[in-house]
Amino acid sequence: MKLIIINGPNLNLLGKREPEIYGSETFEDFFRTLQLKFETIELSYFQSNIEGEIIDKLHEVGFSYDGIILNAAAYTHTSVGIGDAVKGIETPVVELHISNIHAREEFRHQSFIAPVAKGVLFGFGLKGYELAIQSFL
């Protein structure tokens, strides 16, 4: 099985940014833990702060991978383009958020990805990535 985690803007700051919301572990450290836990899965990771690069990555992997875990971060609530990219590919996508987006600002309650995603996970911290992987097994 071939899965990819695609993280959007500011998620490169995990471990530094708002640790009360996002925790103190870097995503790179957490990703190594995921790779060890799911050794039989070919698991890769991509992060970008640039909307177009996220769309390009979805196009690149969206016809050859078994699953995509997408944390588009703030772009979830603003990017029609990312929503359209998810709609246009064949690989199923799980939308993921570390925080409970419905316990935050009103604008975060809207998602352009959720209507075209396989499912949505939010509010479970980094554990959500593990749950998303399990959803593909």
UniProtKB/TrEMBL annotation:
UniProt record, GO biological process = amino acid biosynthetic process; aromatic amino acid family biosynthetic process; chorismate biosynthetic process; quinate catabolic process
| Any Pfam family the entry gives | DHquinase_II
Q: In which pathway does it act?
A: Metabolic intermediate biosynthesis; chorismate biosynthesis; chorismate from D-erythrose 4-phosphate and phosphoenolpyruvate: step 3/7
Superkingdom classification of source: Bacteria
Assigned EC number: 4.2.1.10
Tell me, what is one Gene Ontology molecular-function annotation carried by this entry?
A: 3-dehydroquinate dehydratase activity
Is Lyase a UniProt keyword of this protein?
Answer: yes
Give the reactions, separated by semicolons, that this protein catalyses.
Answer: 3-dehydroquinate = 3-dehydroshikimate + H2O
Site features described as Transition state stabilizer, chain residue numbers: 17
Q: Would the keyword Membrane turn up in this protein's UniProt record?
A: no
Quaternary structure, from the entry: Homododecamer.
What exactly does this protein do? Catalyzes a trans-dehydration via an enolate intermediate.
Please report the name of this protein according to its UniProt entry: 3-dehydroquinate dehydratase
Q: Which gene is the coding source of this polypeptide chain?
A: aroQ
